[in-house]
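Dear colleague,

Thank you for sharing your sequence with our group. We've completed the structure prediction you requested, and as agreed, I am returning the results in plain text so they can be pasted directly into your records. Please verify that the sequence below matches your submission; if there's any discrepancy, let me know and we will rerun it promptly.
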Amino acid sequence: MQLGYSTNSIGDIDPLDAVPMLRDMGYASLAITLDHHTIDPFSAECMGRVDRWRRSLDSAGMACVVETGARHLLDASVKHEPTLVSSDPAARARRIEFTRRAIDVASALGAGCVSLWSGVGRDQSPEATLWDRLAEGMGSILEHASRAGVIVAFEPEPGMVIDTMARAARLFDRLGRPEGLRLTVDVGHMECLGEWPYAEHLRPWRGLVANVHVDDMLACRHEHLPLGHGDVDFVAAMAALAATGYRGPLHVELPRQSHRWLETARGSAAFLHPMIPPSP
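Please find the predicted structure tokens below.
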């Protein structure tokens, strides 16, 4: 496993300018959240921005994944909306189109995966209806990803329709566990939702983890904390991830620390590096 960092945790500068700085700290990968200030897939400047990112990453010798969790890229007034479970079919179609474009960006960048989540059920629809909407949208996304040769990594997210590993497994079963569908693991989310011991909850996902987010959290509280400031047992989490066969980047995700990103990046690297098990 290697150190990685998330662009949603970089504030006050163009994230492209942070690439060589992160490389010099020992980071080997970036989780690029598509957004106004990184790559906006709806912008006329999209492919030019993709080219700049590709050249910057290549120059630094860094890998990347593409993240789709921008807060207000699709809706300036409601965080993370629309989603794959929104009530309005046109709104869901906009999320699907955004994700297809994210897949195209990932293909152009040579990214390891596109990471996504389900969304919050806001309209009081029955759970079965939410699952139907999600499955329909995921089917369309997975078809596009298969054609592009891009892995889709699904992230269970506290407060969303798919919040736990168990519910993610139900979704994977419903979708027929296609070859191109993998899992994004957030170690803080596991702590928040009481998914202990980590190894027990991750064991069924051996060979299926494509992306990892690293942050600290307190049990039952969804707040990304600096590493070492919550309840996550990082030694146990790293061992559990290694047991799944995961050998990819560990992307530090601390958006609420973006105003002090340089200090956070340095501290996270120093904290996390000794926790990473040696390669077999």
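Summary note from our side: The mean pLDDT is 97.

Kind regards,
the structure core
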